[in-house]
Amino acid sequence: MFKRGRRQSFFSVVIASYNSAAWIKHTIRSVLEQTYRNFEVIVVGDGCTDGTEELLKTKFGKRIRWKNLPSNSGSQSAPNNEGIRVAHGSHIAYLGHDDIWSRYHLELLDGVVREQDPDFAVSGAVYHGPPGSMFYQIAGIFDDPDMVRREFFPPSSFAHKRELTERIGGWRDPNELRPPPDCEFLLRAADHACRFVSTKTISVHKFAAGHRYLSYRFPRGDEQKHLLQRLQASDGDATVLTEIIADLVNGASAPAVKQMDFDQFPPGDLYRDNRHNKGLDHSASLTIEKREVLTIESLPTALDWHELAQHPVHGPFRWSGPNPNPRHFLSIRTTGPVQLRIHVIAFAAEDLAHSLRIDIDDREADFVCERSSDGTYIFSGQFSTAVNDGLALRFRMPRSVPIATEFGTRRAGLALSRVEITLGRD
């Protein structure tokens, strides 16, 4: 029963956006199809330079409010603060521009608000790893209100009282923070004795860009579109959750989203790693003048690659991660075509070597495989034009496989050691 006299919530849905034309329409539709109707939608662009504004105006017109910040700040903090500033609602509900809500999400949050009037109403969220990765994370379902100090839940899963930021302050500049800004916002709220109450129901489906290496360099909305279509069926929520449970029974990973010891990181360090994961930043390009051998580096690569390891003969290498379609970025510049020789130490299963296909910048390329006398593999191919801003190799395999590594049992596909690059054609 709702407490008497408590008014129905009015939610200001704030969506921070950056160059999200490939997927944001599915996110917006998941809001507009809510069973709970007392809300407004505010999309704040973080200096968007793609077709996001035109798409939103064409598809949704006056059903949303749009504002584009004059320059890119690099995180959700500035757009969130602007959304709060112009909001009319009693509560601010956030939604990631690449996430999808169940149609019951706001209804569930309103139930918690009217029943218990917390500072934060929180719904359960499922993080979906890249297709085929058998990787999930579940957050936001709890009884203990102090859970926020131990486990993280994403902004897409919560709504807070609008006046809360007047008490604790707004979203902060990530360059000045040791935690990511969303973690810091929640921990700061906990330090101010804010009260958190969970709906204990999953109503958020998160497609974290930080789990998808180079996601901003190669934007796609297929995952969001497919999930939204499935949720629109009469039994869609139950069907999706049943399939996730089946994956977990069949060996999918579902680690908790733990709060970390953020004091170990310099301010802005995690933020910069996340930008690298997404493909927003990369190291300076190496100009290929004749022949170069690029060894594998220990760079943040989301769920595409495991930690750097050392082979006694072949030197540094990395096993690919849960994502069966990992990308490897070559930060190079050339004046003409290049030949590529990709050295793979091993595959997690023999059939993966025979089924492997390799893309260059998301276009299928022809590579010839040869088996070396030491049992390793060399894949030879070429890129036929000059390279101005790096190349991304994509290794397409049907699945990843659990294997034993020095770091424990991990899902993996191939062990990449180095890439030889030679200027010119065969």
Describe the structure.
The protein is built from ten helices and 24 strands. By secondary structure, the chain is of the alpha+beta class. The protein has two domains: 11-275, Spore Coat Polysaccharide Biosynthesis Protein SpsA, Chain A, CATH 3.90.550.10; 283-423, Jelly Rolls (Sandwich), CATH 2.60.120. Strands 1, 2, 3, 4, 5, 6, 7, 8 and 9 form a nine-stranded mixed beta sheet that branches.
Task: Give a quick rundown of the structure.
23% of the residues lie in helices and 30% in strands.
In CATH terms, the superfamily of the largest domain is Spore Coat Polysaccharide Biosynthesis Protein SpsA, Chain A
Q: How many individual β-strands?
A: 24
The shape is: globular
What top-tier CATH class of the largest domain fits best? Alpha Beta
- Average predicted confidence as pLDDT: 94
**CATH topology value of the largest domain:** Spore Coat Polysaccharide Biosynthesis Protein SpsA, Chain A
Number of helices: 10
Distance from first to last alpha carbon? 75 Å
What structural class do you assign from the helix and strand content? alpha+beta
